[in-house]
Amino acid sequence: MGKQVTEMLKGTLEGIVLAILSGRSAYGYEITAWLRDQGFTDIAEGTVYALLVRIEQRGLVDVRKVASEKGPPRKVYSLNAQGHEHLEEFWRTWSFLAERLEQLRSGGKQT
Questions:
Q1: Which tens digit of pLDDT belongs to each residue from 10-21?
Q2: pTM for the full model?
Q3: Which CATH number fits domain 3-105: 1.10.10.10, 2.60.40.10, 1.10.1740.10, 3.40.50.880?
Q4: Span between the terminal Cα atoms of the chain, in Å
């Protein structure tokens, strides 16, 4: 990934992770693997885990521990009602920005 993509991703990764969790519960490594499968190959596991800690502290996810075949129990994250509200705000903001950027790209013409 180029530097510009990496910088843009920093601002949107929380919304991306919340969107992943809106579809199903997952643990950190699953989220990282999905992101890598989608082409975000430079995402470090540590980045995702740090983000999961932040969204847990902010009350956007519910966490349950699930026994693992290897090692300690895994923390499985699920989006809760507050997380869904936050995700909806993310999508509203994303839509606003995407529309304005498209206007700029098309020479400032209203679409």
A1: 889 999 999 999
A2: 0.88
A3: 1.10.10.10
A4: 30
